[in-house]
């Protein structure tokens, strides 16, 4: 134990240090409170008995502060300046990024660069990016960690746990991702975009989503130029490892193929954080007009649009995103008249509804067709049963096999000797005829001068009164 304490003076566990590496590997730069909110959200509901907010915050973040101290000792993390409010920024060193890559299971080349010096300018944009990640992620508290807390605290944690879920885990996110229009992934050329956030959470219905954060300092024209870059990246094709040409983004991320030739580019979410002077409503309207050629789909008579080769663009505010999360109807897609949930906004619900309706109509036609076939088959069976032959001897209906035997066959087929008798009656007649042949003489009726034709029906005469 003493050795471990010497190696990690702050006493942090491997799991705790791993949590810090994963969060900073994604966010690049963050406060210790943001790290705690993502990796251990149950701590938000502890230490409520502390007298002032600063003391509660210090208690909540103490374990992660210790983990950062141990990571600094090993050269994996460092302080990156301070925010105006006094919070210290933390980031990873190049060696720390490599360690984070192992924790996240990502290639080192996808980790980006260390975020050194972010605190010198106040880090307003990185902090807004972090807020957006937390709002989209919506980490759930571990209720088992709060079993000994007061009832009101457990109730608050339960309410957060029961609220609509966010998207994925911290490993579903990446920040400051270059989207090269020229060059390579490792060495992007000019003309490309850089996504503030990239989300890959197919288990939650978001296979790939780019997120652009705006603090309301940029004009619609500047944002339109950024969207042009996103479009150029989406249109860029390269040769994949199998020698086939594919969109460049498909060589890094997996997205299901579109149906019926509808293959839009990955959607772009714009999050407006109103701390700058520009009105996001005005900017959004202008931006929609400036970029219409990129996002406007083709109308189909079925009541929906197709977006093959288009860039779906969705906008929301940071305020709405924090309050409602991805499940709230606070997202407006360019070209649509009302707000939707995020999944609806980046998807094509009218097309889905059309497909469901068409599938239902097809299924109904199939059921009607099968029912008609069953009715016709039943009618044919009834007509066949009505025409089934009846045995002239015993009155029973022929079996299918007997009926098939007595039906007319080809001209060279053997003639059926007793077509009006069932198998049993035929067998008895044939047996009687053979007995007659073996006796060497005709039956008594024939010896007394009964006409020949009665000898053929001698067995049947036993069914007459006085016969046999």
Written overview of the protein:
The protein is an alpha+beta fold and 468 residues long. The chain folds into three domains: 1-117, Arc Repressor Mutant, subunit A, CATH 1.10.10.10; 164-347, no CATH class; 400-463, no CATH class. It is 43% helix and 13% strand. It has helices at residues 2-7, 14-27, 32-39, 53-60, 62-73, 94-104, 124-137, 151-162, 220-235, 280-290, 292-295, 318-324, 342-346, 349-386, 400-406, 423-439, 444-447, 452-456; strands at residues 29-31, 77-82, 88-92, 173-179, 193-201, 206-214, 237-239, 245-247, 268-272, 298-300, 304-306, 313-317, 332-333. Strands 4-5-6-9-12-13 form a six-stranded mixed beta sheet. α2 (14-27) crosses α3 (32-39), α2 (14-27) packs across α6 (94-104) and α7 (124-137) packs parallel to α12 (318-324). It is elongated and about 130 Å long. Mean pLDDT is 87; it is low at 445-468.
